[in-house]
Each structure stands twice: as C-alpha cells, then as structure tokens.
User: Which sequence fits this backbone?
C-alpha cells in the first residue's frame, strides 16, 4: 500500500521572484503522486489562493489555503532601529475551516496596514486575536523556534514553542521538520524531535518547496538573482545552499523521515482536518444610500425618467424635427431597458455609476462621453452616465445587456487624469473606506523581458543579451517558443554552448509572475468590508488594493467599476479653458456643432 504524504509548505510563483511553481503544474504533479490534498503557503500574501482553490477542485485535489506569514519579534508597530531592516520570524498558517480562512484574510490585511516594515508583519497580539480555525507550523530556519535553536538557546526555543501552542491551542501547533539537505536544518531537526518529546507538541514533515523538480534548482537560483539585482557570479548574495527545495514524492519524503513516521502521518491528518468551502459567483452589490420608504428599484426608475425628461427638453431645443412620433419611440425603448435592468437586478449598479459620474460633472472634473457597449443604453444616457444618444447613432442596447446572457454590466468611465483621485476619494467616503479598493494586477516575465532578466543575472554582456532580445518579434502575446519557430537565427544561437544556459533558464522562468501593481482602472465597491471576501494590501502610493486580481475578484462576487484616468481629457479641458479665456467665448465641448466648417 502506498504511503500517504501531503505537502503543507509550498511556494507558488506568487511568492514573487522567490517561488517558481506554477499552480497548474503543482496540481498536475500532486495528481501524479496520488496526493489527496496539497497546500500553497506563499510568503506574506495570498495572491494565488482563489486561483489555486478553483484549479485544485478541477483536479479533484483538496486545496489547503495557507500562507507563510512574517511575525515581528516584538510589536508589529515596532519599526526597529537604524533603518537596516527589521528582523522577522516566519510561521506557516493553514486554514482549517471558513473561520480560519476569514482570520487569514484579516491577518494578512492587518500585516500590510499596521505591521508593514520591509515586509507585511503580524505580531503575537494579532495572532492571539485571530487564531481561531488556524493550524500553525513552526516554519523553516527563519521560524522563531528554529532561530533560537540555531543560536543554541534551547530554553528560548522551548518558551517560543509553548507560546505558539498557547495561542493556537494544543492540537493546532506543530513543530516543522524539513528534509532540505541544509546542514543547519539537520541540527535543528534533531533538537525539534527532542523538543517534541519533552513538550508533547506534535511534529510535521515538510519540504519548503520553492520549485517543482530537482533540475529546476539552477533556474530558481537565477530567479533569486533577478529578485535581488545580483548576478550568479557574485559571492556575497542571497542564495539557497541546497538543491533539495523541490516538490518531492511521498516515497522521497518517507525515505528522509523514516525514523519519525508520526511527522509524515501528521501531514495527512492535518489535510483531513482542513475544509474550506467558498461561496463564489454570487454578486455582492454595494448598498446605495436611500431615503426611508424608498427601494433601489423605485429610485432607479424615478431618476431615469427624470433624466430622460431633461434630455427630451434638450432634444426639443436642438432638433426642430423632433416630434411626438419620435418621443414615443424613445419612451418605448426606455421602458424596455428599465424592465431588463430591473429584471436582472442591476438597478443599484446604475445608481452608483450615475452617482459618481454626476459628482465628477458637478465638480468640473471632465468625464468621457461614453465608450464600449454601454453607449448603447438609453438609460445610461438618461442618467448622465454617457453623453451619446444611442437611438440617433443606431447603437443597440442588447450588445450591452441581455437577459439571455447573464453577465454583470460593465461600464467603462473615463475621467480626467487630475480628477480621478478626487472621484475615488468621494466613492470611499460615500460607501465606506473599508468597502472600496483598487484591484491588483501582475506583471509576468514575458519573452523579451525574461531574456534580458536572465542574461543580466547570469552576468552576460549587455550588448550580447540586447541583440538576442531584439531577435524576438515585438508581437502581442509573443512566447519564446513562437519566437524560435519564426526566427531561424534564434535556433542557431541556441546551438551555441555559450548561450545554452541563457535559453534553458529563460524557458524555465518565462511567464512567471514578476511583480504586483495596481490596475489602471479597476475598482471594487462592496456590500461588506472587503476583507471579509479577500485580503488587501497597500499600493505604492498608499492606495488600498485587493490581493486577488480582476478575474478572481469577480469570481468572489465583488462588483467592479472602471475608473480610467485619461490624459486626453485633461488636455482637451485645458485647451477649452485657454480658448474661453483668450477669446472670451463660452465653448462647450459637449455641444460642438459638427456641421460647422
């Protein structure tokens, strides 16, 4: 009978420039090893959690959602001394149930907003407040217990272990043995076994996986050089002193820990305890502020008809040919659109978009006239969301919303670059700062960029690498494979032993997630604090950002709004102001006579 083992300490590509494991590859390998479950525990974030959860369910493998979190030695608010970077400890947290998952979201969010100092950090106060439903593992050589053992301070190690057991509960804290081939780890493992025997704290075996196969160790070393801006030729640089941090088979793990079978059996026991079930694809519409006795539907209908009547009076002033027959045509179209929007439950969405668009207009922030399929909506035109008459221009509402195609409305709104932040601030104040966030997006190691990154990390001459990178066609979604198939000179270069390593490593790293940043337009507004659905972090300008990207934010049911800052609108606005000042006219960009030569 095959011996069961489950990996509980795994770094995917979302341990940015530190993990090199793609989620689908991880699950494929786990399936080949007949593992019933697997965890991902990325460093200080859960960027990949929802992607992993969905993919694991497709593979028929139980997803264990976790994180290797950073713990401040004292208080999370302590910023250390001398600016040399605060020391922090690692601890692996796994969600046992939905309560634990919720606590993990809170801990990671607080780590970013209250404890960030070089890294997002929690402290024992936060762990105590949000420990429920979590299983903790003592982590690698950077864990607190292991750090004290390495410093030959057994008493402090024992005290730390007992503190964590007190925080998480006696069945929820494990001493983590690792089979990484690092000399110090062998010493720590012996002490951890002794500590377990003395205290009764159970052990668990892991491998701190950073790459999938043993032969990926070289590519991972280059990845660390890309992260730290060093080259492989430099002696004093961050490196792993082992090539054992790969996703080992159960047989390999049993061979490493045959003398402590309980540590291996505990991996399956922990996996059996972990059950997180997420409710997805259910929209969580924000609440629009209402007067007593009013509903979203009645307010939406009233505001739409009021707006339409205002547009009608504009038509009559501008268009002498606008008669009763045309008015009837517009009213029928409006009634049909209102009916579809209410039937699909989207009244609130339109109220919110109209609210922030009209705030911008009232505060002299230029707004685009409307683009995309939303310009086909007479309701959007009536509410002032767009400024394009869809009937006059022959635009079709069904391209935008259709009862037969159930999807959320998607209205792209363009604001002047200068005014976008003011609109975002208004939305945060109106709906709650804890319910509004921008959406994260990821940069990946694309074909040209990965050649440059790898060449630099290998210490190759810039000119040589630049020539190779420029042979890759600058087409959209270009991959190294496609480039090699279309450019014979690349195939020739690959045969040259001097370039072999460059291409091998570039192929291994291509497409990996490189960094997280803030999406140019995507904003979510939620019915409850967003941290109840996903973890958050601080963007480079201090903005609140979701840790999940667009696709998975929508999967979690949060409603996305597009706030795009357009430089063109700012340029046009400045031009209009200059014309009006210099020529003493009142030019209205929205009502330019298009037949004026």
Assistant:
């Amino acid at each position: 009978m095959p011996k069961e083992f489950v990996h509980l300490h795994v770094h995917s590509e979302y341990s940015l420039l530190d993990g090199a494991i793609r989620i689908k590859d991880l699950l494929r390998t786990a399936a080949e090893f007949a593992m019933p479950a697997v965890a991902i525990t990325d460093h200080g974030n859960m960027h990949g959690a929802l992607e992993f959860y969905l993919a694991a369910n497709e593979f028929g493998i139980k997803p264990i959602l976790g994180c290797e979190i950073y713990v401040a030695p004292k208080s999370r608010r302590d910023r250390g001394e001398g600016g040399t970077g605060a020391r922090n400890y690692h601890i692996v947290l796994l969600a046992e149930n939905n309560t634990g998952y919720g606590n993990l979201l809170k801990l990671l969010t607080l780590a970013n907003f209250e404890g960030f100092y070089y890294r997002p950090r929690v402290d024992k106060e936060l762990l105590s407040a949000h420990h429920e439903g979590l299983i903790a593992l003592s982590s690698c050589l950077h864990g607190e217990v292991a750090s004290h053992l390495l410093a030959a301070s057994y008493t402090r190690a024992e005290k730390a272990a007992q503190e964590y057991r007190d925080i998480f509960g006696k069945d929820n804290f494990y001493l983590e043995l690792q089979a990484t081939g690092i000399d110090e780890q062998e010493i720590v493992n012996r002490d951890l076994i002794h500590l377990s025997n003395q205290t009764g704290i159970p052990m668990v075996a892991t491998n701190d996986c950073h790459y999938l196969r043993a032969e990926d160790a070289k590519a991972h070393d280059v990845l660390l050089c890309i992260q730290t801006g060093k080259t492989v030729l430099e002696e004093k640089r961050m490196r792993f002193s082992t090539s054992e941090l790969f996703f080992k088979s159960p047989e390999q793990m049993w061979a490493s820990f045959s003398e402590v079978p309980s540590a291996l059996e505990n991996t399956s026991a922990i996996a059996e305890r972990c059950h997180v079930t997420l409710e997805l694809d259910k929209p969580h519409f924000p609440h629009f502020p209402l007067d007593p006795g009013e509903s979203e539907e009645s307010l939406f209908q009233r505001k739409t008809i009021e707006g339409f009547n205002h547009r009608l009076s504009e038509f009559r002033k501008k268009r002498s040919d606008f008669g009763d027959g045309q008015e009837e045509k517009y009213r029928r179209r409006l009634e049909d659109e209102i009916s579809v929007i209410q039937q699909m439950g989207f009244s609130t969405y339109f109220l919110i978009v109209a609210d922030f668009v009209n705030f911008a207009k009232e505060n002299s922030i230029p707004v685009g006239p409307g683009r995309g399929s939303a310009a086909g909506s007479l309701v959007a035109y009536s509410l002032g969301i767009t400024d394009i008459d869809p009937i006059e221009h022959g635009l079709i509402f069904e391209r935008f919303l259709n009862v037969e195609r159930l999807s959320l409305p998607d209205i792209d709104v363009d604001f002047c670059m200068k005014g976008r932040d003011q609109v975002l601030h208004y939305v945060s104040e109106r709906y709650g700062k804890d319910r509004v966030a921008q959406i994260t997006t990821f940069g990946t190691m694309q074909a040209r960029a990965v050649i440059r990154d790898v060449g630099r990390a290998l210490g190759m001459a810039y000119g040589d690498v630049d020539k190779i990178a420029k042979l890759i066609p600058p087409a959209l979604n270009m991959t190294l494979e496609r480039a090699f198939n279309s450019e014979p000179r690349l195939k020739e270069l690959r045969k040259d032993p001097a370039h072999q390593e460059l291409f091998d490593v570039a192929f291994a790293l291509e497409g990996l997630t490189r960094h997280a940043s803030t999406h140019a337009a995507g904003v979510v507004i939620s019915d409850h604090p967003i941290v109840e659905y996903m973890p958050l972090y601080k963007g480079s300008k201090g903005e609140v950002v979701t840790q999940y990207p667009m696709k998975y934010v929508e999967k979690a049911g949060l409603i996305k709004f597009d706030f795009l800052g357009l430089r063109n609108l700012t340029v046009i606005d400045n031009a209009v102001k200059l014309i009006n000042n210099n020529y003493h006219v009142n030019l209205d960009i929205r009502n330019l006579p298009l037949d004026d030569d």
